[in-house]
């Protein structure tokens, strides 16, 4: 099969971790005889520094022509500390999501046996937790009308959703639930927000079409609590953009390491695969960052973008083998630790020799 990829390393540790994931992608392509075609492009602070904007047209064109995008991370402290900066790396990410129509962000929350002791939760609460958070990614307050009035002394951001947007994401939620443990938790704030009442209305209309799925409704504040109290009660969670942003960060830490979790952003034009963590600028260039989240994002890419399940599984098996063998970076190592590049090489070699 022909695999046409756009590779967007971005900022901070982005280039190093994406390089490790590409080693596994190449090993898979060689093993399964796929024709791999890929091209690198600029994004984030790196793109601002080089061409003045965080998601250049050239990058967008490349993404549009690709079957999938492998993305590293964006962000640079020099922008975070300057509230008056008008061009920011994050705008590139938001523009990319909007222009590629990436309406669903899928974040699986899985635990790894060897890391349970690093979870902030007690072992019995988190052991076996396994759910998928689906976050709406191109609507809501992130993209609503915003501005200032009263000479800049009043600021507003608006949360807007259309019925069609809500239906589209809920449908995806139901499809996931059908393939998993048949429970869908719709997270909203319908006791206060009109947009949430639309979500609930749409969900209540759709639920009878999925008689095999149990639909559960939960207010977002309660969901924030349930994630740490009873994480095993969730199967598929679906929610709007900002609630999803906050809840998925919360959910990711209960597994014991943010450095291990991948994500997929499913789109109209193409899909993007990236680790959940950020650009970790303090570690940039040091060859110490954990590449596993990005390598697992590549596994999701084979599965979601190309429906190549065996290829995805082989990457997952290789990652599991590296962890079992203790070939891991310093953030999760118990004794001896390995460099980012050594972990990447080990995993790619394991795939080649499997
Ligand atoms: C994420 C990030 C982004 C978001 C930022 C960088 C704009 O936190 O992907 O979750 O808020 O969506
Ligand atoms: Mn976030």
From TrEMBL:
<keyword id="KW-0028">Amino-acid biosynthesis</keyword>
<dbReference type="GO" id="GO:0009098">
    <property type="term" value="P:L-leucine biosynthetic process"/>
</dbReference>
<keyword id="KW-0479">Metal-binding</keyword>
<dbReference type="GO" id="GO:0005829">
    <property type="term" value="C:cytosol"/>
</dbReference>
<dbReference type="InterPro" id="IPR019818">
    <property type="entry name" value="IsoCit/isopropylmalate_DH_CS"/>
</dbReference>
<comment type="pathway">
    <text>Amino-acid biosynthesis; L-leucine biosynthesis; L-leucine from 3-methyl-2-oxobutanoate: step 3/4.</text>
</comment>
<dbReference type="GO" id="GO:0000287">
    <property type="term" value="F:magnesium ion binding"/>
</dbReference>
<dbReference type="GO" id="GO:0003862">
    <property type="term" value="F:3-isopropylmalate dehydrogenase activity"/>
</dbReference>
<keyword id="KW-0460">Magnesium</keyword>
<comment type="similarity">
    <text>Belongs to the isocitrate and isopropylmalate dehydrogenases family. LeuB type 1 subfamily.</text>
</comment>
<feature type="binding site">
    <location>
        <position position="135"/>
    </location>
    <ligand>
        <name>substrate</name>
    </ligand>
</feature>
<feature type="binding site">
    <location>
        <position position="245"/>
    </location>
    <ligand>
        <name>Mg(2+)</name>
    </ligand>
</feature>
<feature type="binding site">
    <location>
        <position position="249"/>
    </location>
    <ligand>
        <name>Mg(2+)</name>
    </ligand>
</feature>
<keyword id="KW-0963">Cytoplasm</keyword>
<feature type="domain" description="Isopropylmalate dehydrogenase-like">
    <location>
        <begin position="4"/>
        <end position="347"/>
    </location>
</feature>
<keyword id="KW-0432">Leucine biosynthesis</keyword>
<feature type="binding site">
    <location>
        <position position="221"/>
    </location>
    <ligand>
        <name>Mg(2+)</name>
    </ligand>
</feature>
<comment type="function">
    <text>Catalyzes the oxidation of 3-carboxy-2-hydroxy-4-methylpentanoate (3-isopropylmalate) to 3-carboxy-4-methyl-2-oxopentanoate. The product decarboxylates to 4-methyl-2 oxopentanoate.</text>
</comment>
<feature type="binding site">
    <location>
        <position position="97"/>
    </location>
    <ligand>
        <name>substrate</name>
    </ligand>
</feature>
<protein>
    <recommendedName>
        <fullName>3-isopropylmalate dehydrogenase</fullName>
        <ecNumber>1.1.1.85</ecNumber>
    </recommendedName>
</protein>
<feature type="binding site">
    <location>
        <position position="221"/>
    </location>
    <ligand>
        <name>substrate</name>
    </ligand>
</feature>
<feature type="site" description="Important for catalysis">
    <location>
        <position position="142"/>
    </location>
</feature>
<feature type="site" description="Important for catalysis">
    <location>
        <position position="189"/>
    </location>
</feature>
<comment type="subunit">
    <text>Homodimer.</text>
</comment>
<feature type="binding site">
    <location>
        <position position="107"/>
    </location>
    <ligand>
        <name>substrate</name>
    </ligand>
</feature>
<dbReference type="InterPro" id="IPR004429">
    <property type="entry name" value="Isopropylmalate_DH"/>
</dbReference>
<dbReference type="Pfam" id="PF00180">
    <property type="entry name" value="Iso_dh"/>
</dbReference>
<keyword id="KW-0464">Manganese</keyword>
<keyword id="KW-0100">Branched-chain amino acid biosynthesis</keyword>
<dbReference type="InterPro" id="IPR024084">
    <property type="entry name" value="IsoPropMal-DH-like_dom"/>
</dbReference>
<keyword id="KW-0560">Oxidoreductase</keyword>
<keyword id="KW-0520">NAD</keyword>
<dbReference type="GO" id="GO:0051287">
    <property type="term" value="F:NAD binding"/>
</dbReference>
């Amino acid at each position: 099969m022909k695999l046409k990829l756009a590779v967007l390393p971005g900022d901070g540790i982005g280039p190093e971790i994406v390089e490790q994931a590409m080693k596994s992608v190449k090993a898979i392509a060689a093993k399964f005889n796929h024709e791999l075609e890929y091209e690198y492009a600029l994004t984030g602070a790196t793109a601002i520094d080089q061409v003045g904007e965080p998601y250049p047209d050239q990058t967008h064109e490349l993404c549009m022509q690709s079957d999938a995008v492998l993305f590293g991370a964006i962000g640079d402290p020099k922008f975070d500390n300057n509230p008056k900066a008008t061009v920011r790396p994050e705008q590139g990410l938001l523009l990319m999501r909007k222009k590629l129509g990436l309406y669903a962000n899928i974040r699986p929350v899985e635990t790894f046996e060897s890391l349970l002791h690093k979870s902030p939760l007690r072992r019995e609460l988190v052991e076996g937790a396994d759910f998928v958070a689906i976050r709406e990614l191109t609507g809501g307050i992130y993209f609503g009308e915003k501005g200032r009035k009263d000479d800049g002394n009043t600021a507003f951001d608006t949360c807007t959703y259309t019925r069609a947007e809500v239906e589209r994401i809920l449908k995806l939620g139901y499809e996931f639930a059908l393939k998993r443990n048949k429970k869908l938790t719709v997270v909203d704030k319908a006791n206060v927000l009109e947009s949430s009442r639309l979500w609930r209305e749409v969900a209540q209309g759709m639920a009878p079409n999925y008689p095999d799925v149990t639909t559960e409704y939960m207010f977002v504040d309660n969901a924030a609590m349930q994630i740490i109290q009873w994480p095993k009660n969730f199967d598929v969670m679906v929610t709007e953009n900002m609630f999803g942003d906050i809840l998925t960060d919360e959910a990711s830490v209960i597994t014991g390491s943010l450095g291990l979790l991948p994500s997929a952003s499913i789109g109209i034009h193409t899909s993007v695969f990236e680790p959940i963590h950020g650009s970790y600028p303090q570690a940039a260039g040091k060859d110490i960052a954990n590449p596993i989240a990005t390598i697992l994002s590549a596994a999701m890419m084979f599965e979601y973008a190309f429906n190549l399940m065996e290829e995805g599984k082989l990457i997952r098996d290789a990652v599991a083998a590296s962890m079992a063998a203790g070939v891991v970076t310093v953030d999760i190592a118990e004794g001896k630790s390995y460099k980012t590049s050594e972990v990447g090489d080990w995993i790619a070699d394991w795939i080649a020799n499997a």
